[in-house]
Structures
1.
Amino acid sequence: MLRIIIFISIYLAVYGGMHLYLYRRLRRGFELARGQRLAVFSFLLLMVFGPLISRGIERLGWEGVAEPVAVLVYGWMGVLFLSASLFFFVDILRLAGWLLRRVARVSLPGMVVGWRPLSIGVLSLSVVASCYGFYAAREIRVERVVLPSSKLPAGIERYRVVQLSDIHLGVMTNEQWLRRIVAEVNSLKPDLIVITGDIIDSNVPSSMPYLATLSRLQATDGKFGVAGNHEFFAGIDKSVAFLNEAGFVMLRGDRAVVKPWLHLLGVDDREGRHSGVAVVDHEVPLMAANDPAAITMLLKHQPVIREESIGRFDLQLAGHVHQGQIFPFRLLTWIAYPIAMGLTDLGQGSQIYVTRGTGTWGPPIRIMAPPEITLIEWVAK
């Protein structure tokens, strides 16, 4: 209960604060009359609680209502974030211009612009960028990563692993979009498919309509995965049952010997500690049984690296951060997870690959963070 209270308090402070900031800028920029101010304030106040209302409707199972509400609420979230970011950037520029005039007695042309044209420009750009981001979020890229290894046995020149992550199946999932993903993955003819969490968004019943499509993913040596924080939000037992039914073997502190020369280690997401169920989110105990002659792949949802694990696995796969999903939010995710997207050499024979993810969370848009399907090709060294 305390954790929920803390979360809601932080949510209201941050998300409510962004709305209040935008309200003040709109009020100043458009010189709103009293009735207009009341209408704008009421809409923004409703949108502050919009995500909570949307989740509540979804939990009640009112799918017909939940989808349009979610589109409105989360579409607005994207516009809000972009607008607030642009207004903040404008405020920084205006502050810099004011300091130049006051301190250095320098006046730059174009630095003094009325609030009304600024506000119109910011809102127009935010809407256009959101429309672009909606389109960009559906343009999936296949990222190919080639990893030479001397651990492949004689006669095997190439082994193909597809990684999927952060699909976030829910009320805003488009069935046609999911079919495109499945068709793209199957066209790659993978030997193995792995998922690194957040396949489900927040409610298993909202994911059920997509079970049949997800089940069509095919790989010669099977499908494996680990749970992300959203699987725990949705209820880990129900989430695992759903993914099992889709054909995935879920690794929750387990080792899977896919081939004598290829081992998978999988652990729970660390957010599972707060779910009230037992979790295994520490991989080091699993590594006691490592075979140094085998390729060891570690599956974790968040790109968190334990120093004591480096040198004891060949490749760690992770997701979670979506590369920020909407620029400039990626700057904040980099502070929380200071590791580059893509492939990073950790030394001692270990590497990590962090995917941008395939779907979206919250706003159904992506800007400067295109969705991806990752194809990892182990090749004979």
2.
Amino acid sequence: MKPSAPFERRKRTLNTALLMILALMLVAIVRSRANVSTDGAIVQQVTIAAPLIHGTAPLTLVTPAGGSAGRPLLVFLHGRGGNQSSELTAQLFRALRRAGAGAPDVVFPFGGEHSYWHDRASGAWGSYVIREIIPYAVAHLHADGRRIAIGGISMGGFGAYDLARLEPRRFCAVAGHSAALWPAAGDTAPGAFDDAADFARHDVIAAARRDRRLYGRAHLWLDGGSADPFHAADAALAASLRIPLHVWPGGHDSQYWNAHWGDYMRFYATSLAHC
């Protein structure tokens, strides 16, 4: 017997609803604990639709202990070969706890193997952070969208300074921790840029030399180990911007970065408090 028209309409409505549910599952939140003590912070592993990088993307969201709506947001970009969970260390969570009420919510996006966080042939990695990651994190965490900081390690440090110069009014604070910078296209690591023209479009040292005020009123930070191979290039950027380069003993490795999460978080919390 042929189904009635009302039955067919109800069936189509049900199918549409099921498709909507399946689509929402792409951004389903899975609460989980890191492999280390979170010091009371809540860690959420999320997958979102990310058409700007041709698909979906995982990201990690961290809410400090006692978190509530209206906290500032820190966007933290991982280094080359890392991922959205690379920085979930005991040192990070301890630093968040010690920052107390001033601690920001944190979003750790996924940046691929070596995207260097800029728009390029493999995807619009910079636009993805600005147009997909930040709006999602602000809405999902109920963060204060007027108080946002951006920072990162190595590749992520470069990405933070590159994105912030293109969006000078968006960020209250910008930080590079052992930022992966080069003085010329011929010095760059394989895969960091598509070609010399791509490097030139994202040469933050040259941009700072042309205009040391290109970051507006944002609070700026640069640091690196005394034995870091990027020391000279980071010093050149710091000199162009007329800001200090914080240097401590160490190299370009997690031992160095984990030793200074407390310093990093104090900078972010203080800068965001005065945003």
3.
Amino acid sequence: MSSEITREEIGKRIAFLRKRKGFSQDDLSKLVAISRSSLVQIEAGKRNLDVLELQKLASILEFTLNDFMSAEFMFEKKHLLNEFVNVIESEERISIATSNVPKLKAVLLYLLEKCAGKPNVGETVLYKLLYFADFNYYELYEEHLTGSRYRKLPFGPVPQNLDAIIDEMIDSHSIQRIKTEFHGLPQKRYIPLEKSNLKLISGAEKEVLDKVIEQFSDWTASAISAYSHKDLPWIVSKEGEEINYELAFYREAPFSVRTYDDENLES
């Protein structure tokens, strides 16, 4: 293979071409006769392709090896996003997020158990932790964590119908809402009154949650909000419209959790 492009770039190209053809990772891995975990590793840039695998992918995804390995491959961000919009408009198999309310409640309680004692973790930080957990998990596993649907609103990505779920949790005495101040500004905070049902959270989901907590739970509301506004799914979405989870696959460093993990492995 050409030394001009990295394993990470090859993985991104495979992922893009796969999604343009409408294949899930499970679909494509079966067609290529490799495990789904191997395909996940390839798309994440953590596993090399051998020549036979690349030839199979070229046949299935309908690309030529010369074009695929070219530095002129249609992978510039602007062109890629235009292509992505076309895929969204024509694709019937795009995964639609469906909120899993018991899972969402379990995740909220888990986040609060870990973070509610930190004075910076008010409502804004909590909502951003949930956003990054949902989109990071989808980027890694192509599956929904809580299934929450987010809209691009002026103050940041916020799960739809979350206020109603929060109110229900307050009424059932799962959490308590308190009003405080942080750095002289009013702040809404939530205190967990019961333990999260960890039976609803898988090991992989817990790992993603823990990484998000480790990365962001000490950030201020203004810092994490500003950071979320630089995330590609937020940037390319239209004001007031739903943020499509598929956009997580086109993130770049430092937002891409796949890129982030690769850098950690090398350090």
4.
Amino acid sequence: MVLLSLVLALALVGVHLLVERMPTLRMTPRKRWLSFAGGTSVAYVFVHVLPELGGHQAVFGKSAWSVLADTHVYVLALIGFCAYYGVERAVQRYGSMTRRLSHHQTRRRVEAAVFGVHIGAFALSYVLIGYLLVHQNVPGPMNLILFALAMGLHFVVIDIGLTEHHRDVYHRYGRWALSSAVLVGWALGMVGPLPPAMLAGLFAVLAGGIILNAIKEELPGHRESRFWAFAVGALMFAGILLAIPGL
């Protein structure tokens, strides 16, 4: 399992390093198969991530935080959703503001700050994704492979969105930072497991962020996504998740 988790971590790293070599992914309207990828990510959220939050909720019930057990993990998911939404709104607001700045050095400083916040927020979630490659809530190679597949397709869409926000600077620095974050998370996972209650909380925050990005990037009306490709991807991946016992 350790070797498999490393191989999958390297595969996720490869997503950001290879997407830039596929310029057709960035064309508008999106290609059918990219909408298909978005559908699989959304299916993973609804069929696997949200039910898994229920399992993590039980962890809180057995922890010192049991006084908050009734809804705590779902509140954390909401906090994650709101936090990532706040980051996206700040990036949009200050990104448009920089284009109106006439002073070159001031504009560069604001752009660098916006870029750092945006990449930093995603890097935190990527560290956790790398960690979860080592410590899955439901152990087993099939669960691990499906997790990596869903996250890899999710990474493709995120990569395109970040490129649209930051252009060349993302390819020079951002994609390397995100790729490194996955390996950092995997290495932390090899050091040892987190306390179950802490992992449950971090997973809930990550789930909120994934749900936001599923809505923001993978249902993009302004890019004329292909509905049928999206629906086929969602239904097919949901069927795979439901057909495998124990997931």
